[in-house]
Amino acid sequence: MVTVRAPATSANLGSGFDVFGAALSRPADVVTVERADRTTIEVTGVGAQYIPEDPEGNTVGAVVEALDAPAHIHIDKGVRPASGLGSSAASAAGAAVALNRLYDRGYSREELVPIAAEGEAVVSGVAHSDNVAPSLLGGFTVTTTDGTHSVDARVPLVVCLPDVAVSTRDARRVVPETASMDDLVETVGNAATLAVGMCRSDPTLVGAGMSDPIVTPERARLITGYDAVHDAALAAGATGVTVSGAGPAVVAACREGSRQAIAAAMLDAFAEADIDARAYQTRIGRGATVLEE
Ligand SMILES: Nc1ncnc2c1ncn2[C@@H]1O[C@H](COP(=O)(O)OP(=O)(O)O)[C@@H](O)[C@H]1O
Ligand SMILES: N[C@@H](CCOP(=O)(O)O)C(=O)O
Predict the structure, then answer these.
(1) 88 Cα: distance to centroid of ligand 1 (angstroms)
(2) Residue 86: left if φ>0, alpha if ψ -120 to 50, beta else—which one?
(3) Averaged pLDDT of the chain
(4) How far is the CA of 33 from the centre of ligand 2 (A)?
(5) Count of beta carbons in the 10 Å neighbourhood of residue 264
(6) GHMP kinase C-terminal domain: which residues (predicted)?
(7) Are strands 40-45 and 71-77 parallel, antiparallel or unpaired?
(8) Which atom of ligand 2 lies closest to the CA of 171?
(9) Active-site residue list
């Protein structure tokens, strides 16, 4: 038996659509696997009632296939599905690490990235790696078709999760197919600024690099109260604010000591829009960890 804790993640970070991701110190899924002749999946925890236990529909099913590693799998969800916090990816990353150990497959964490990403294709139609990479490797990650680079950045964050669901599959439909050269130049500048900020663990640069004129404005329209929450977080001291993943969670980069005030301001702004929400005072954290084997 192997048990793995796999963290939630925040993908895109505004300027890095389908490329940037960050592991969050909390929340997380806990995945336990035991050898079996046939794969069975049991899901408990937050939002378990919305998650298929059929291996064909669950992200961990694709990981079982890719590793040829049938197992009884228990997923204890700490990351709510359809959150923008890499819920589907956390389970896939946890299962990839656990099954790799259980069957002694010998893959490195980097090699597990495309394997865990197969699970994302099951739910969103695209095997995007920007959630599974940070859940596997920890820190801030940059994933391209050539592979993944990770930086052990230390930046405090607040993620505020409204009590509404946005599926990644639906939110990918609003992504523009083209962009102007001006918008691309602005995005590249912001992405580069954010990456330098991560290398320096500098929340000011990270926040400055979070804005994006192409994808985020379209995604923000799907989140009731987004503009007010964005402005409230900045007024409370956030260095940058954007949609987390495909939403509806909103992520704010923070300086040390400012997270409590920022979390309160974001919750108040959602409440003003009649939306219940919860806030996680979190930070960029470590990747999947083996708890027991
Ligand atoms: N192990 C899993 N954990 C979470 N969601 C899963 C899992 N397997 C399949 N799903 C499905 O994936 C969808 C949520 O994934 P997604 O839309 O990408 O949101 P998130 O941003 O939370 O990952 C839901 O329809 C859910 O039923
Ligand atoms: N790059 C993807 C990231 C989706 O993240 P999730 O946490 O919402 O699953 C996208 O923006 O579609």
Answers:
(1) 4
(2) left
(3) 96
(4) 26
(5) 14
(6) 196-270
(7) parallel
(8) 12
(9) 120, 168
Cα–chain-centroid distance for residue 267? 20
Do the annotations mark residue 83 as ligand-binding?
Answer: yes
**ipTM score assigned to the predicted complex:** 0.97
Q: What is d(CA 265, CA 270) in angstroms, rounded to the nearest whole number?
A: 9
Distance of alpha carbon 258 from alpha carbon 293, whole angstroms: 38
- 82 annotated as ligand-binding: yes
What is the Å distance from ligand 2's center to 290 Cα?
25
Return the pLDDT at 127: 87
Q: 213 to each of 22, 51, 106, 169, 217, how far by Cα in Å?
A: 21, 33, 42, 21, 7
Say which CATH class 156-283 falls into: alpha beta
85 CB within 6 A, ligand 2: yes
2-151+285-292 CATH: 3.30.230.10
Give residue limits of the domains in the chain.
2-151+285-292, 156-283
The response to whether residue 128 sits with its C-beta less than 6 Å from ligand 2 reads yes
**What's the confidence (pLDDT) of residue 289?**
98
pLDDT digits (tens, 9 = 90+) for 69-104: 999 999 999 999 999 999 999 999 999 999 999 999
What confidence tens digit (pLDDT) does each residue in 241-267 have?
A: 999 999 999 999 999 999 999 999 999
Q: Which residues line ligand 1 (CB under 6 A)?
A: 50-52, 57-60, 75, 81-89, 91, 123-124, 167-168, 245-246
Please work out, in degrees rounded to the nearest 5, the angle formed at the alpha carbon of residue 148 by the alpha carbons of 217 and 191: 35
- The pLDDT confidence band at residue 168, using thresholds 50, 70 and 90, is confident
| Global confidence as pTM | 0.96
